[in-house]
Structures are given as C-alpha cells and as structure tokens.
Amino acid sequence: MISTGEREFLLFAITPPRASTSPERRQAIADATLRRLQAVDPDGVVLYDIAEENDRNPDERPFPFLPTIDPADYLADQLKAWQKPAVVYRSVGKYSESSLQSWLGSQPTDRVLSVLVGSSSSGNVGLTSLRSAYTMRQTVQPELIIGGVVIPERHETRGDEQLRMLEKQAAGVSFFVSQVLYDVNAAKNLVSDYRDACEDQGIQPRPIAFTLSVCGSLKTLEFLTWLGVKVPNWIQRDLTRSEDTLAASYEHVRAAAFDMLTYCRRLGVPVGLNVESVSTRRVEIEAAMRLAVEVKGALRR
User: Fold this and answer.
1) Of 174-178, 235-239, 255-259, which gets the smallest average pLDDT?
2) Which of the two ends of the chain, N or C, has the fewest CB atoms closer than 10 A to its terminal CB?
3) Is the pLDDT score of 75 beyond 70?
4) Whole-angstrom distance, CA of residue 129 vs CA of residue 74
C-alpha cells in the first residue's frame, strides 16, 4: 500500500506500557491489546517511542513523563503474536549511533517499518541526529521502509513544511505520519503546498497518514496543546462546554478524517489514517476502537 500509493490504509497506534510494569502485567496488557487489534483489524500497528521532550515547551508538562518499554522490545517479546506489519517509532536522539545501527541491522524488513523521529528542538539533537539516522539506515538496512513525521502546525507558522517533506523523501522516506489532527485547514494548506512542490520537482507525492486522537478530558486537551497540537478555538469551546467531552471530540475527529480523505483524493495525494489509542481509560480505548472501525469503512481499498 505504501509503495504503490494506490490503496488507502488504516494504522492503529499504541504506546508500550511503562518501563516499571512487571513482566506479568506487561503480557496481560499485551494480550488485551492483541484482542483489540484483532477486533479492529488495521493494516498495521504503530508503536510509539516516547521521549521526555522537555525542550519542546517551557511550560510545566500537564502529565508527568514516565519512561516506557522500548517499542521494538515490546513488539518482539509481548506482541510477537501480531502477524501483520508493525511501524516502530524511533526517537533517534535517545540512542547512540552504535545502538541505532545495531537496531537497524536487526530489523525483519518483511514485517517491520519504522518512523525515525528527530529531536523536538534544533538546539539539542541528542545522541544521534535525524540526518545521521537517515544516512545510517541507507547504509545498514536500505530495505527497511521508513516514514517521517509531518507537522501541519509548523507549516502554518513557517510555511516550509513541504520542503522538509521533500528533503525527507530524498533521504529515503516512503511515507509520512502527521501529528495529531484537529486543525483541518492547516492540514489542507500543507497537502496543497506539498502537492504543488512535488509537481514542480516532477516527483510523486508519498502517502500521508493523518493521526486521529479522541480527547476524553480537559486535561488531555491541555496536554495536546502542550505538545504543539493546534486545536482551533471553536473546537476548544465545544470541548470545554460540552457535557460529554469525549463524544464532542469524537465527532470533530471523525469529521476531520472524512474531510481529509476527500481533499487528498481530489488532489491525488495518497492518504491513510492513523488512529491513536494511548489512554489507559477504558471509555477512551473503546472510543478509539469505534473510530478506527468507522473510518476504516470509508477507505478505498
């Protein structure tokens, strides 16, 4: 699907358990996750690699940072029964070049893809820069399909996100995954400029998976804002004044998904959807599953 760009796809994203979780509890969580994945039946699962990102925002983090299990280890150990593709995020600044090189070289490219993520601040690239990681992958494991992060909000402020996308394509990126989508106008502006930039250079646009995340509480809304997600004022008003924040969020996210599918089809930009399920609250997990099943039915297969 990613290589040809001819079919739309669904990803379902999760965060591994906390690093402090006992081995028995890790497997219990994984077993429950596998049951949910089987019920949703996405084309692939996404495993996030959580970084502290203190340099992203000087304000106090709404939720404390708690280290999680390495997503690659979680896939290999607790989620080994998952038979479909897995997209393993790698926050490259967390890993030394030797460690990242070893990991790249050991990946089974027939079922594992990766999204290589750079630092949240250009002033602190960490142990390995994104540019170095791209070069390393090309040398060590060129058959590993890799993706890149795309941020519509950054395009709104800087106007050059499409150029970053082209640079990442030139470095070997085959698909993109967006930051959590609430501002459809920002996403449309980005898609439009990206499509024009690809035409100018005579290259084909690569698939973009737009990330959908239901917001079940005002605390979660605060955290999204802290992460740099732009939630338009009118949506914030709906969420803060609604008697059911989760239900209001669900309707907004659902509408955004259908809107982006329609727009990307019109422009001829390959598209997918990435539904997050990163909350530990059952009601939010069930809402994410319901959303994934609903938007999956709208995809062109």
Assistant:
1) 235-239
2) C
3) yes
4) 24
Side chain identity at 150, as an amino acid letter?
Answer: V
Mention every residue, 6+ apart, whose C-beta is less than 8 A from residue 121: 55, 56
Is 117 exposed, middle or buried (CB count within 10 Å of its CB: 0-12, 13-18, 19+)?
Answer: buried
Measure the CA–CA gap between 88 and 115, rounded to whole angstroms. 6
Assess contact for 95 and 69: CB atoms under 8 A: no
Neighbouring CB atoms inside 10 A of 111's CB total 13
- Per-residue pLDDT, averaged over 207-213, amounts to 97
Token look-up 């319901």 returns: 290
Is residue 119 within 8 A of residue 146, CB to CB? The reply is: no
CA-based R_g, the chain, Å:
18
pLDDT band (50, 70, 90) for residue 53: low
Each residue of 17-27: pLDDT tens digit?
A: 999 999 999 99
Q: Tell me the backbone φ, ψ of residue 103, rounded to 5 degrees.
A: -65, -45
pTM: 0.94
C-alpha to C-alpha distance for 83 and 301, rounded to whole angstroms = 20
Is residue 121 predicted with pLDDT exceeding 80?
no
Mean pLDDT value across residues 208-220 = 93
The strand pair at 112-117 and 86-91 is best described as: parallel
Domains of the chain with bracketed CATH: 9-296 (3.20.20.220)
Please check whether residue 24 is in contact with residue 230, taking contact to mean a CB–CB distance below 8 angstroms: no
Q: Which two tokens stand for residue 49?
A: 């690699």
- The pLDDT of residue 278 is 86
Beta bridge partners of 13: 46, 276
